[in-house]
Design brief:
There is one protein chain. The chain has about 100 residues and is α+β, with helices and mostly antiparallel strands. It has a single domain, classed as Rossmann fold (3-Layer(aba) Sandwich), CATH 3.40.50.1240. The chain contains 4 helices and 2 strands; from the N terminus they run H-H-H-H-E-E. The chain has a two-stranded antiparallel sheet. The longest helix is centred in the middle third of the chain and has 18 residues. It is elongated, with a radius of gyration of 15 Å. The two termini are about 30 Å apart.
Length: about 100
């Protein structure tokens, strides 16, 4: 972490994730858009069911931030712990982030 904290790229990602772009990678905004687009496509394919999405915490936090109305540059304020469940209710009249909870191990 000490080496990472000295990196301009790392600091930029911590303070400006929506615009930060690692070498050869996507901006945080591009990651968020791609992930949310995929969630929307999965939901459209399963309109009557429940779905589960499993990913790395930063991607999940970007998805939750989108549905909670939190700007991506503030997504690090969200805490999504390993083995937790975040629920996003997507209904016919809109979307709402509901809850995040830890599962018993």
């Amino acid at each position: 972490m000490d080496d990472l904290n000295k990196s301009d790229e790392w600091r930029m990602f911590q303070f400006y994730p929506s615009g930060a772009r690692p070498p050869g990678g996507e901006t945080g905004r591009q990651v968020q858009m791609r992930a949310v687009d995929e969630v929307e496509a999965i939901c459209a394919a399963h309109p009557e069911g429940s779905i589960a999405i499993v990913s790395h915490s930063d991607t999940l936090k970007a998805i939750v931030a989108h549905y909670a109305g939190i700007h991506l540059d503030l997504f690090q304020r969200l805490v999504i712990s390993p083995a937790s469940v975040s629920v996003i209710w997507i209904g016919p009249h809109g979307r709402a982030w509901c809850a995040s909870t830890m599962l018993d191990r």
